[in-house]
Amino acid sequence: MKFAALDLGRVVAAHGRHFLVESPEGERTICHPRGKKSDAVVGDLVRWQATGDEGVIEHIEARRNLLHRQDEWRSKSFAANLDQVLVLVAGEPPFSESQLARALVAADSAGIQAHVLLNKCDLPQAAAARERLAPYRAMGVPVHETAMKAAPEAARALLAPLLASRTTLVLGPSGMGKSTLINLMVPGAAAQTGDISVALSAGRHTTTTTTLYWLDESRQSALIDSPGFQEFGLRHVEALQLPGLMPDLRAFAADCRFYNCTHRHEPGCAVIAAVERGEISASRWRIYGEICDELARQKW
Fold it and tell me: How do residues 272-295 score in pLDDT, each as one tens digit?
């Protein structure tokens, strides 16, 4: 089959084996994958053909990048062709630095720019969160601050240029303000989510639906919302690659005595020396060790 002759569309929502594919003109069609495998993800450009009122996805175009999420048993892709990842954190409830670190490693391994957004910066608990984010600022991760509920117009002014002309995956556990961000930047997002849920027969399972929202009429700027805070699939990463995906470790790893240093216990390890001097935070080194152990177990 000559796929180039088929209709081109973008996957804008996914739930199980149901996909909503949008044409270049903005028309949306419910599509299903050919065969048993459903490899398409939100953000994919696909070639599809109509079958009655619905369609069949025949081919996935080459991707610029791909992110994976992970459950207890396997990794599964869930978003593609991203320009950046925006991770929401807050002082209340306290965010998980381990989850944040994994998100940044996943983005770095896929070559995707990551930003951190500290929400609720008007609350007293923001000071502790700001301190916990200091190592990330120091290693060059862009960290922005806002208070979306207390100062929505200021938040919109901060976010609009950051999101303009980009496809952004928004991440954040419950309570960090992700729904507030979506509703702030996408008027009518709640109604749109409901319509997509009905279209994909997601019903009360809407929380498992990954959705792309356009921010402008020209459809140049988009937010992708994948509910919950994903545990990122890092199984494609080798343990020896990990320091290169963590900028604070990367800055010292080349100075180690051994070329294959694990940065856990070796004599002459420049990373351990940096931890002892306080140039790499103890929590970051601990998280590095946790991820290394997980990657080693996965190879068994």
Answer: 999 999 999 999 999 999 999 988
User: Domains in the chain, start-ordered, CATH in brackets?
Assistant: 3-60 (2.40.50.140), 80-225 (3.40.50.300), 239-298 (1.10.40.50)
What residue has token string 């070559």?
111
d(CA 190, CA 202): 15
3-state secondary structure of 6: coil
Query: What letter represents residue 153's amino acid?
Result: E
Residue 12: enclosing H or E segment and its boundaries?
A: strand 7-15
Q: Is 16 left (phi over 0), alpha (psi -120 to 50) or beta?
A: left
Question: What's the Cα-to-Cα distance from 52 to each of 31, 91, 126, 196, 287, rounded to whole Å?
Answer: 11, 51, 54, 19, 51
Question: Helix or strand or coil: residue 97?
Answer: helix
- Rounded-to-10 torsion of CA 122, 128, 133, 135: 150
Global pTM? 0.90
